Amino acid sequence: MATQHKEWLRLTNEEPLEPDLPICDSHHHLWDYPDSFPENRIELAARPMRHYLLNHLLEDIAGGHNIVQTIFMECGSMYKKDGPQELRPIGETEFVQGIAAQSWSGQYGNTAVAAGMIGWADLMLGSEVARVLEAHLAASGSRFRGIRFRDANLFSDPKLRQGFALLRKYNLSFDSFLYYNQLPSLIDLARAFPETIIILDHIGTPLDIGPNSNKRDLVFQEWKKNVKVLSTCPNVNVKLGGLGMPMSGFNWDKRAAPINSIEMAEAVAPYYLWCIEQFGARRCMFESNFPVDKLAYSYTVVWNAFKRIVKGCSSEEKASLFYDTAVRVYRLPRL
Predict the structure, then answer these.
(1) Between 20 and 30 A from 248 (CA), which of 69, 179, 180, 294?
(2) In what order do the strands lie in the sheet with 236-240?
(3) Model confidence pTM above 0.90
(4) How far apart are alpha carbons 238 and 286 in whole angstroms?
(5) Which residues, in sequence order, are CB contacts of 279 under 8 Å at separation 6+?
(6) Whole-angstrom Cα distance, residue 228 to residue 232?
(7) 3-state SS class at 93
(8) H helices of 143-239, where?
(9) CATH code, 2-8+20-329
(10) Whole-angstrom distance, CA of residue 98 vs CA of residue 109
(11) Coil, strand or helix: which one is 69?
């Protein structure tokens, strides 16, 4: 299936726009699922691409955009098979640290892959999560930058907040993957911890599946209201991307040929421009969300679409959106 998907992506071929513009890809994954691994235990988005390693990412980057460095986002891959349950996610950090060392050897091109790493830790451990955070830091060769936690229903839990309070102590940030109607819980969390850096992934995921199917306009209006309120929290930043996921309801993965950047930009511009209007370019960053979004379009096409969307922005704003915000928020070296 991976070969078929690669051939499908090639049906829409584009040259990169503004190929010299420096980019920090603020959100991508790396994983490796053996062919023997049961498909029902793999995330749906990963099934067409059981393997996404350094060579696969570099193949996507080779389309011509100037990807200077990248940030790895946890995806529950390569956990340790034994030992204390709470420490098993350290296996993913060790796995990515090996890939980062490969990339930074200079033998695989100029992109610094996984310059920053985001892992997972169970904040419901409360103060006991400290040993997990310390283990991530020790395993990452100084590249570990924060954690992602996906269950917004727990954001008000006192135990979670006890663990969350430790992030600032270790100079770590918090990525949140939630849905548009869960944004009020993130607003409350951000206001309770105003000195902790928070990053909203995938613009808060406006849904168009299940009960939300065929309600795009209603969802869009509720999403806009929630994003506007969230933007009043100065410690929150937002990632612009992720609308290629099936849950967004665009169904681009079902087309006879992949979407092109002109059509894609037209479809997603209202979402991304609203975020930029509310947060400002200095608190927004573009993300590929690859290989999850690779189900819908190629790496070259998605970055072309981003560049088309902000063609009216100043050079300073573009610098923030494509590079500076990600580097500043994730405390990366400028390369």
Answers:
(1) 69
(2) 22-28, 66-73, 112-119, 144-149, 173-176, 198-200, 236-240, 284-286
(3) yes
(4) 9
(5) 231, 236, 237, 238
(6) 7
(7) helix
(8) 158-164, 166-169, 183-192, 216-230
(9) 3.20.20.140
(10) 16
(11) strand
Instruction: Enumerate the β-bridge partners of residue 290.
Output: 28
Cα angle, residue 183 at apex, residues 119 and 153 outer, rounded to 5°: 65
Q: What is the amino acid identity at position 155?
A: F
The CA-CA-CA angle for residues 135, 179, 211, to 5°, reads: 140
Instruction: Please give the chain's pLDDT, 335 residues, in tens.
Output: 578 889 999 999 999 999 999 999 999 999 998 777 777 666 666 666 889 999 999 999 999 999 999 999 999 999 999 999 999 999 999 999 999 999 989 899 999 999 999 999 999 999 999 999 999 999 998 999 999 999 999 999 999 999 999 999 999 999 999 999 999 999 999 999 999 999 999 999 998 878 877 889 999 999 999 999 999 999 999 999 999 998 899 999 999 999 999 999 999 999 999 999 999 999 999 999 999 999 999 999 999 999 999 999 999 999 999 999 999 999 999 98
Distance CA 42, CA 35 (A): 11
Q: Tell me the two tokens of residue 46.
A: 């990963």
Q: Using alpha carbons, select from 31, 26, 29 the residue that is nearest to residue 69.
A: 26
CB 239 within 8 A of CB 198: no
